[in-house]
Amino acid sequence: MSSEDPGRSAPRTGPGAAVDSTGALPGRAVAADTEQVSAADRASGADALTCHGLRYDFGETRAVDGVDLAVRPGEVFGLLGPNGAGKTTAIRCITTLLPVPVGMVRVFGRDAARERMAVRRLLGYVPQQLSADSGLTGRENVALFARVFDVPRRERAARVAQALAAVNLTVAADRLAKTYSGGMIRRLELAQALVSAPRLLMLDEPTIGLDPIARTSVWERINEVRAATGMTVLVTTHYMDEAEQYCDRVALMHQGRIRALGTPGELREDLRARRARTAGTPAAPGTAFTPASPSPSPSPSSPSLSSLSAAEPTLEDVFRDVAGTGLDEQSGGFRDVRSTRRTAARVG
Questions:
Q1: Which SUPFAM superfamilies match (predicted)?
Q2: Beta bridge partners of 65
Q3: Is the pTM value of this prediction over 0.85?
Q4: Side-chain-facing half-sphere of 324: CA atoms under 13 Å
């Protein structure tokens, strides 16, 4: 098991529903109680996650620098940024793997410093590094997590079956994980996180190293579970097309800070409007959104402002605009590259 797994216990729920014979997502199967709680969360108006001035230092290096964030119940929220931006460190603070001062992080109103175990019981976590054991079957992997999460013994077998069915692994459940494809491994890890019926699912680059078909399959399972339970999802990804298609809102992080936040459409419209203003042409009416900090000026080698203003920006354009140039020198380090390549090799 990965050292990054929060090792939290699961909330105790009622007996699990039966898994349907097709292996498809059973109605209310993953966590009927989660659906009820999520509806109450939305009705109350409370945030699923709040960060107030979140900071974290590694020695003299500040990895996260004053992050303010609010994630709404039931939404898919994307945390984007180049390697070394501080995304994974922020995730580890939220999951209580790294200690934070009182008041900086709250999950459904629970303080991550004062109520560490209560916060862990609310979370499901799929780390960037793989957490499945290749020497166990898919069912055994999920059952191990069910025990770690303190799922009641009388419910354990049904909950494991439900989690496997939710990610479409029922047929392959009794095969060794080392025989799985990359996409199947990632779906198995999703099942491991879902077996505890989390209210907030944290996904750190869940599709890293996967081919387009496998990436789509992972996201289909995430969306099916979310639709059935009303679960909140916080995801980090380097794939801008995933963020554009699946995230309700995104935050762009660079050098430890949130540089822009909004829906993908708002961020694209803001960049288009700023390009038009810089080029001296009027911007068409739209929903402009102001980034959290000024964007760098275009370099002399950049495309002409007139051609840029005429083109419809993509979320990748917004990413480049926020992060600026020189990413090869600023992003990540040896450990980041080694970790990413190991994960990609194992799922590939």
A1: P-loop containing nucleoside triphosphate hydrolases
A2: 55
A3: no
A4: 14
